Amino acid sequence: MQADELARNSVVDLPDLLARVEYDRELLRELFLIFNREFPPLQTELKQAVEQGDLDRVRTIAHSLKGMLASLSCSTASSSAQRIERMASQPAPEGIPEELVRLDRDARLAQYALETVCQEALP
Known about the structure:
This protein is mostly helical. The protein has helices at residues 3-8, 14-20, 25-52, 55-71, 75-88, 96-121. The longest helix is centred in the first third of the chain and has 28 residues, at 25-52.
């Protein structure tokens, strides 16, 4: 999948992402490396919090993931994290496990898209 195809599929808003990093290829690479290092442990922690029913932790972690994904112009995955954050704020939350599955899928797609963009855009 090419970067322009990824942008059309709105997994990553490529024009927005490039503008965010001011077309700085090295910065884009560094942000991607940080994302790859920090995202998986947070994602695991979110799954554990959901399994344990710790809604405060779910809300906090989902908020962090939402921001992390939004900063990389991954709007679909960021929206999924935002829905989890909102659900965890409800008195009787429903649908969090299903939304977590969507977040996992959307995050994998975003990670693949970012990797593709970095490989195409960087020497």
